[in-house]
Amino acid sequence: MTPHPLLAELTLRARVEAHSRTSSGCPCGAATLADRPDATVVRHADTVAKAHAPDTDPADLAPRLTAAAQLPGILLPPLGRTPVDLHRRLVTFWPYGEPVDPENPDAAPWEAAATLLARLHRTPAPHGLPPMRGPAKAALAVARLLAAGRRRHTVPVLRAWLTLPPWARAETPMSDTTTLCHGDLHLGQLVRHPAPDGPWRLIDVDDLGVGEPAWDLARPAAWYACGLLPSDDWSRFLGAYRAAGGPAVPAEGDPWPALDVAARALTVQTAARAIAKATEAGRALDDVEQAVVDACDRMGSAPPELAAGSAK
């Protein structure tokens, strides 16, 4: 099958960037790391080229790239700060980093992820950063769910969505306008650089910005609350975040009052995306997808005065 023009040209641009400092032959091949509507990513040798989502605002991406360049001990720095315009998509270039091995869950770097988050949250935000995009992405997931139209699973997810405060639904600004946040933290956002065994670094600055730091802990918190993340892994993550002085939760005691809203929002986002993807593929939900939908059902059926704890 012939690759679409964006993928073909992105592959060529990655090759050119990777070999821009040498005139020798090129024995290495290219690899497509992702090809989705919101991101196309190609690797060639030690260089990665990323085509960002079509609606990416260059005025928002620029300060995010600058922040990554200024925080090389936390974020993977880009290869240059000026995106290329390619088929009406902004393209950036990055050094290759070794990702987390999904086939080896026992080696998941929960402590490294938590420590990097704590350091990020404690770092003064560079000037000009836009708001962190977490709530906006949750709202987009719900909009996609509504467009998919699977009624039986949709109702409990929408009911849970309506229990959230307006800021978590991206209807009003977040109250925290100073804390530097990643915006979309999961284990796929960590790489070792230099590959294959350098220190861990956070990648993907598309959602980087200022906002509520609890959002960055919300995905593992939600998976723990849904019974999808073992308690030992959650304890490792939370303990490392606290040990590194992370400000999103109290240093000791129950962390849930600080995490609950964001964890419920990420549960809804995950369920909404799962239903939409299953509907578009014409298949039933798998066990993990059903678990997050069931969690939404519990959240949405709780009385308002109990809703704050219903995800646990």
Number of helices: 9
Mean pLDDT: 91
Given the C-alpha coordinates, what overall shape results? globular
**CATH fold annotation of the largest domain:** Aminoglycoside 3'-phosphotransferase, Chain: A, domain 2
The structural class is alpha+beta
Name the CATH superfamily assignment of the largest domain: Aminoglycoside phosphotransferase (APH), C-terminal lobe
CATH class of the largest domain: Alpha Beta
Number of domains: 2
The tally of strands reads 10
Low-pLDDT windows of residues: 303-312
Order of helices and strands: HEEEHEEEHHHEEEEHHHH
CATH architecture of the largest domain: Alpha-Beta Complex
Largest β sheet strand count, sense and barrel closure:
5 strands, antiparallel
- Share of residues in strands: 5-15%
Indicate the percent of residues in helices.
40-55%
Strand order of the largest sheet: 1-2-3-5-4
- Compute the CA-based radius of gyration: 20 Å
Q: How many angstroms does the end-to-end distance come to?
A: 47 Å
SSE layout:
Blueprint: H1 5-18, E1 30-36, E2 39-44, E3 47-51, H2 58-70, E4 84-86, E5 89-95, E6 98-99, H3 110-122, H4 134-148, H5 151-161, E7 180-181, E8 190-192, E9 200-202, E10 209-210, H6 214-225, H7 231-243, H8 256-281, H9 287-301
Antiparallel strand pairs: 1-2, 2-3, 3-5, 4-5, 6-8, 7-10, 8-9
Helix pairs in contact: 3-7, 4-8, 5-8, 5-9, 6-7, 6-8, 8-9
Concise synopsis of the structure shown:
The protein is an alpha+beta fold.
Q: What features would you highlight for this structure?
A:
312 residues, alpha+beta, Phosphorylase Kinase, domain 1, Aminoglycoside 3'-phosphotransferase, Chain: A, domain 2, five-stranded antiparallel β-sheet, three-stranded antiparallel β-sheet, 9 helices, globular, disordered C terminus
